[in-house]
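Notes to self, Lipoprotein:
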Amino acid sequence: MRSIHKIIILIVLSFVFILMTGCYKEMDTIVTNAATTNTVPTDTTPTETAKLDYVPTDIMIRENETITSLSPDGKYRAEAYGTVISITAAGLFPYEGIRILSADNGDIIWSMERWAYTVSFTWSPDSQYLGIYYTGRIWGDSIIVDIENKEQISLPELDEIASHYNESVKPQENRPDPYIEITGWEDSETVIVDFCWTKADGDEFRGQYTFNVKTHEVVYK
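result:
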């Protein structure tokens, strides 16, 4: 009788052992599947892995607002237009070009493709000339446009201006950082120009002259 009891106990223990072994295997399968789900596939190509790690870093590009200026007589409109997105400085994008149009029909009277970060227009009182000031990253320059003849009038260059002063204010050779800005008109044919540059000692020098658009006479103040 005791032998029968021992046999029954052994059978029960064996059955319990088998059940427990099956449960452990099932749990291992679940854990393995969960780990596989949360792991990046090992057969992912480098390009695909890069995409998974990619964080968008797009720079917000804001298109320039067109700068416009109407002539005193209302016949002409000057514009700085477009946005050059291939180059930037301090978050600014340069304008694509500058042009003068007829206010009546929009015909282009004069144009210039010049990258400039800032542009300002100053009309002569009689609307026959337009002073244009435009800047780069470390410089500023000005020109005058003769509306009737559709011609560009150049102002004196930096070297010519500096030659009217002594050596103590000579522009720095490597980084003179010149700014030559038309700021107004004395009369219909005489423009006022402010200028500055960095001297050899690192300080800034400022001055002013007037320029007659017909005689090209320069008078330093």
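- The two ends are 132 Å apart (CA to CA).
- Residues 67-220 form one domain.
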